[in-house]
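Page header: ASSEMBLY MODEL / two components / 992 residues total.
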Amino acid sequence: MTQAPDRNDPPSPKKLHPVARARWLMRLALKELKETLRDRRTMVTLLLMPLLVYPLLSVAFQKFLMTSLSASEQIVYNIGIESEQAGNILKNYLELGDRLIKQQEGSQGEVPEQKGKPASAVLGALPNQFEPQIKYFLAENLRESVQSLKVDVGVRVQNIEKLSLIDQQIVAIDCELLYPENSRLSEDVLSYIERRLRVVNQKYLPQRLKLLDVSERVQPIKMTQRSVESIAGGVAGSFSLSTLVPLILILMTITGAVYPAIDLTAGERERGTLEMLIAAPVPRLQLLLAKYVAVLTVALLTATVNLTAMTVTIMSVGLGSILFGEAGLSGIVVVQIFALLILFAAFFSAVLLALTSFARSFKEAQAYLIPLILVSLAPGMLSLIPGLRLNGFLAVMPLANIVLLSRDLFENSADGFLAITVVVSTVGYALIAIAVAGWVFGADAILYGSHGSWSDLFRKPIQKRTAPSFTSAMFCLAVLFPAYLLASNFMGRLGDIGIQSRLTYSGLLTVLLFLVLPSIIARVNQVEFRSTFSLSVPKPVAWPAAILLGLSLWPIAFELVIWAKSFGVGNLDPQFLQRITSLLEEWHQLSPVFILLALAVTPAVCEEFFFRGYLLSALRTRDTERNAILLSGLLFGLFHLIVTDALALERFIPSTLLGMILGWVCCTTGSLYPGIVLHACHNGFLLMVSYYQDQLAERGWGIEESSHLPIGWIVASALISAFGLFSIHRFTRRTLPG
Amino acid sequence: MITVKGLTKVFEGNGECIRAVDDLSFSVAKGEVYGLLGPNGAGKTTTLRMVLGLLEPTSGYAEVAGFRSTEFPNEVKRRVGLVSASAGLYQWLSPREILLFFADLYGISPELAHQELDRLAELFDLHAFLDRRCATLSTGQKQRVQLARALIHNPPIMLLDEPTRGLDVLGTQVIFDYIVHVRDEGKAVIVSTHRLDEAQRLCDRFGLLHQGNLVSEGTFDELKQESGCSTLTEMFLQLADVKPASDDVQEATA
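Prediction written out in full:
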């Protein structure tokens, strides 16, 4: 085939030494970067926006605080006391302290209230307007009142005794100040009391010292403080402002990356440079990597400029202690946040490129990105919910995980294991997005538009097709997932309608979404049913083989779940487990035949119809059979993870594996039917084991939720499964129509 | 250098099948300029894209220097320089940066790339604007940058897709000189155009495309003899009109 070329060929990038190759890639990236950074539009989002936004935001924030404080009638400090007598003594001393402070301020000019305290930093401009109203509350159990935030600070007055001065007698007290943790307001009240009582002590100190009797106490008031763990729902007050900061930073990083991502992908096509680029002997993934480096760099530059502008603004305006507590904004926190921004930029740049690579013009790319940005706002907003803690699930939720981890870093409460989970999952998502982008970028469908577009969905083709288009399958999937989720939630809100009605409703929903919906779309798109849904009769061996597989695969699936749990994946909510147990009890009111029909046969028929019928045929038009099986299995696993298993992570691997086996069975036998039988047997067997678990346990066949199965069972199951798979492979292979 | 055999491309979309190129066969030797002629929509650009491996043929194949474009697309791409009227330039980069970038894409060492850049700048008289932003260049200057870009890796084969589209007399003359230059260098050249008069001046052999079919093929004298016409334009009109396309395909591929 090959022959000697006419001239000395230049070395192809593949032959380069890794270092030279990295340099080569950097040169390509540098070109992309030059092109982007010279564009004025990039510079606007990169430099101008952050330089303007943060000062403006801080001014707006100050204005808001000022107006809300002055507009509100008065700030109320609620102080809890244990007796009226104690209340009177405290009240007198606080009023005396207040008068003394005012006298001092009157003689020294205007000294801001509570110098160095959070509120005063912002309220520097309104010195004496800040006059709290003090309310005293009698509380029998002072500690409980503080814990439940009924009062801001509780004052326990003890050891009341008379104390002589030179010309008068006063009351001496010991004060224990109880305050809840994490409440900014309580801290303010605490320092309010402290300052006034200290001033009173200072007033009487000289007189007491004159008496100079060391055996007697000198100061009339002795103060101690005790913090009390709050029980009134996590963080006291509204929500933590420190969550808002990472969200703003993340949004600003997004704005930096959006323009270069569109310009370097969809822009190439619009300018007419994409064809020349693809005409060069460089794999598309490498071209894309160069673009990725450029987008990532711009995103990081934007992040740096933003972080710097924000830090400088916070420092100069004095918002540090309001947003980040007493310690303010420390250098370590800034470094940690920057590291998280790198991670976020790496992830989001990849997602942006994956999406804009699909676009054929700027306009189209923008149309794709608006929903993405709206979707990304949702987890961001979610993370603003007060008291929301980063957990196993949230640690793998894109965007929300980074926002929550940033907040925890700000509050010095980050968990090491969860932080690693956030990093690893985000890097994983970024790699997936880059792979998708590399697959799509410069594909001839995008380059020349030969594969049609979304509008094909609604156009009736002239000729009958043997398989549905990829676009229509994705559309179907996009409708199916949320529709099923919403309908299931709706069912949950129906209240107590009885287990039978519930199962009937669930069965109808499955039929409607998995059977009727793809059928309608197939009909509209003139797709042949027989070939699309593999509706041909398989060779006879396929039937027993499918039954064998259906009955023998469950121990392997069960072990995979146990294995996943041993790695800490998916610890189910105990409430969810309780619900399942009560559901199992309810089942016993129904006949096993009804349960099998509703939960084994209906899902088996309908899910096979969609996943192995519609979806798999569509995927096979785009890629090899193997990849189509893998992808359809993955989507099957994801569907069960998100929609039917209430995010039970440990179920993901067995569901995906089952999906892949079912896909392989369908492709190998050329028929949907063996898969239906396999699926129904698998579900049915597990259901019956649950249904009769008490009876089985009595005979010593019980299965514990958390312990491994006997090794003999697993070996037998593996052997039978292998035999089933071999039979299908050896005796039923046939050519698929189309 | 270039062999095309039974090349066919069917586009499916919008519910219909379009045979853009139908069973096309021809070959081009070293130092030969082959004119792929036909009206808009005849399948010229699609053919060139398949030769270069940018589009996958529905059936048939194209071979460049012994490499099939479907099997070794990168080997083919390394040996081909593409000039296309629809190609654009990076507006924020200078011609120097663009030429060095493409040299990098083709795996040319930086030293050699600078030598080639000097040679091409001399050849196309780029020195005056080599470091100016492309957005500020005139149409003629942009065209010269495009021509230089296609030669930066000194390919043995050139594909020119409608190279004179939108150009004035001077611009067209630059293209003519360019084609003569690359032919003199011994490169195999395919020029696709609908300007039959221009093709007559430039090409050694011609393939007349009509609705994806090769209606007729040969040197100018051969075509004249076959058709009895004196110009390519007349020939084309006659061949396209008189003969039904399906008959021609059988003839051409026989």
